[in-house]
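Would you be willing to look carefully at the protein I have copied below?

:::
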Amino acid sequence: MTSIWTGEKVRLRGVEPEDWRAFQRFDEYSADMRSVDMLHPPRSAAGYRRWAEDTEAREGTDDEFLLVIESLVDNTAAGSVSTHDTDQRAGRFSYGIAVGHEHKRRGYAADAAVLVLRYMFGERRFHKCEVGVYAFNEASLALHRKLGFQVEGTLREHEFFAGRRHDLVLLGLTAGEFASYHGM
């Protein structure tokens, strides 16, 4: 029997208390932090431990959750994926994905995204996924185009960081489009 949470390259799992070290390493790369969210002030090792313990103890819902992306090659935490902004009535949700610096360009983000999309479309009955990607994040834009997302618009000068304003590209993917690219 195969788990729907295991792909060709990664397995998605809950956050464990010992994952704090991996998340601390991920945050050491300011450019990576900016490309998915924003730059946060440094946190102590105790702060990372507390975050991991609190995250592990906090139960998500079937629709909104944070999972660790674990490499099947060496069973290490390679990043995270989370769902948010779920709207059951409208059938929409969003997700965010981040892969640690030393794990980039291995196909982990694509594999993890397909697993989450398959779950949200095939098990939770959502109709559409919407994501926002910073216009300078070419790798993420290419990933989402490869997954079948369509550009739906741009919010100009939407975010401020690194001393200037940045555009946010809005992309969308319907369940039918996903199924035609990846199957259910």
Summary: The CA atoms of residues 78 and 103 lie 6 Å apart. The chain has a mean pLDDT of 91.
